[in-house]
Amino acid sequence: MAKQKYQVIIEMDEDGLYVAEIPGVCACYAQGRTAEEAVANVKDVLGMCLEEMACRGEDPCPQCEIVGVEQIEVEL
User: Are 64 and 4 in contact (CB under 8 A)?
Assistant: First the structure.
């Protein structure tokens, strides 16, 4: 079985939990008390997402390449 790489975006939510998301794979996100726990959890979710896609006869989504993250400031 060939290995595939996916990029993960990790954010902290309003409750202080870490949320890990894999862009390009619909509904592929998980949370944890630490960033490491969130990443481990999203790996499990990715496996389930890919398995579900295979059962439906769908090809895995193309992996999105994250080319940068910017922080902007706006006046509200």
Answer: no
57 — alpha (psi -120 to 50), left (phi > 0) or beta?
Answer: left
Q: pTM for the full model?
A: 0.79
Give the tens place of pLDDT for each residue, 15-60: 999 999 998 788 899 999 999 999 999 999 999 999 998 898 887 7
Please give the single-letter amino acid code of residue 62. P
Q: Which residues contact 46 (CB under 8 A, 6 or more apart)?
A: 6, 22, 25, 28
User: Would you state the torsion angle of the CA atoms of residues 5, 46, 40, 42, taken in this order, to the nearest 10 degrees?
Assistant: 110
Q: Tell me the two tokens of residue 62.
A: 């193309």
